[in-house]
Specification:
CATH topology of the largest domain: Purple Acid Phosphatase, chain A, domain 2
Number of strands: 12
CATH architecture of the largest domain: 4-Layer Sandwich
Order of helices and strands: EHEHEHEEHEHEEEEEHHHHHE
Largest sheet: 6 strands, mixed
Radius of gyration: 20 Å
Helix content: 25-40%
Strand order of the largest sheet: 3-2-1-10-11-12
Structural class: alpha/beta
Number of helices: 10
Number of domains: 2
């Protein structure tokens, strides 16, 4: 087992070459900054001597071949290994069209980045000696080839996973990367219509397999927030999007001491400006705020709150920055002008532990794995 290694995580870069960018008044992603933001992160982590880089999905704006091709060529220039997995934006539909690649194409574009077997969109790779990265495909399609609302690990992949986990050396470190969330990062995420679309539909089955193999660390994306969740001995680190506030990335350092204790030091960085966007953080926070009203009305009118729309519309303006604050991680919420029940509901989204005490671990923390 390696005594130490360091790796970076950036997620949901949504790469969009200028000629591919599409606009929509409700678009949340600032894809205009995708390429300069990526370049800046790669520049910032260059002196850190990382051992490898992980990117848990949504590599492109919307599965465009030109964007996939550009990113694959850019990653090939890096001096360290890279592993990727597909996100919902990378293969919007099952079969390729003139505008987007299909699922069977994904491994062809990213063969050097985990896909030793180009016939399947999942893999295991020993990225450095003693460190096994398992990249899973959580993109699932209905019988008509349309992407389903929630992610899912299909049965064939589940059986493959069970088999490969039995073959891993006892002292190897296992990192599992998948686009959709496996552990809840928001209160009631699995049942809330707004939150469950970011979840894996069969998360309990996957967790049983991983916990049975003593896997301790999951890396996910999709939700566009900085959050670390814990469940039954397993940590899931989800990383926010490079093209939305606060434009984050992470650097994780694994260490094992002489007593066999394993720890991971988590540090986070942010892209605060790129050419043409001198105050990117302010602009992107306002971008989310400007588009928050209808989203917050939906949250207020759906279970478990079920407020009438006219009442929800009176509270929504005070929640203008609610999602941006969640995305930044380690937020605390208190709305004293709200009714007590409503205030309590939103307080649950803050960085608190089970006792309601502040517990800021989303950006900088030391995790004990064993």
């Amino acid at each position: 087992m390696p005594s130490s290694f360091r790796f970076a995580v950036l997620s949901d870069p949504h790469i969009a070459l200028p000629h591919t960018i599409w606009d929509h008044p409700s678009r949340f992603h600032l894809v205009e900054v995708s390429i300069p933001a990526l370049d800046l992160v790669l520049e910032q982590i260059a002196p850190l001597e990382i051992d490898f880089l992980l990117i848990p999905g949504d590599l492109t704006q919307h599965g465009e071949p030109d964007n996939h091709r550009w990113l694959a060529e850019r990653l090939a220039q890096l001096p360290y290994p890279v592993c990727v997995v597909p996100g919902n934006h990378d293969v919007p539909i099952q079969s390729a069209t003139e505008k987007t690649i299909g699922l069977s194409d994904f491994a062809l574009y990213y063969e050097p980045f985990g896909y030793g077997d180009r016939t399947q969109p999942y893999y295991i790779r020993e990225i450095v000696p003693g460190v096994q990265v398992i990249g899973l495909n959580s993109i699932f399609f209905d019988p008509h080839g349309q992407q389903t609302n929630m992610g899912r690990i299909d049965e064939c992949q589940m059986e493959w996973l069970k088999e490969v986990l039995t073959k891993i050396q006892e002292d190897d470190v296992v990192l599992v990367m998948v686009h959709h969330n496996v552990i809840e990062h928001l209160p009631g995420q699995s049942s809330n219509p707004l939150g469950q679309r970011y979840m894996l539909e069969n998360a309990p089955a996957l967790l049983d397999i991983l916990q049975g193999a003593d896997v301790k660390l999951l890396l996910t994306g999709h939700l566009h927030v900085q959050d670390i969740a814990y469940q039954q001995g397993m940590y899931e680190i989800t990383t926010g999007s490079l093209v939305s506030y606060p434009h984050p990335y992470r650097v994780l350092a694994f260490q094992q001491d002489y007593q066999g204790r394993q720890r991971v030091q988590v540090e986070s960085g942010r892209v605060t400006e790129v050419p043409g966007w001198d105050n990117l953080a302010h602009h992107s926070r306002e971008w989310l705020g400007d588009r928050s009203f209808e989203y917050m009305v939906r949250l207020l009118t759906q279970p478990p709150l079920n407020l009438p729309r006219n009442e929800a519309e009176t509270f929504a303006p005070a929640l203008r920055y609610f999602w941006a604050d969640i995305a930044a991680g380690d937020a605390m919420f208190h709305f004293p002008d709200f009714p007590a029940k409503l205030n309590h509901y939103f307080q649950q989204f803050g960085a608190i532990n089970q006792d309601g005490k502040p517990h800021p671990i989303d950006n900088f923390t030391l995790l004990t794995l064993k």
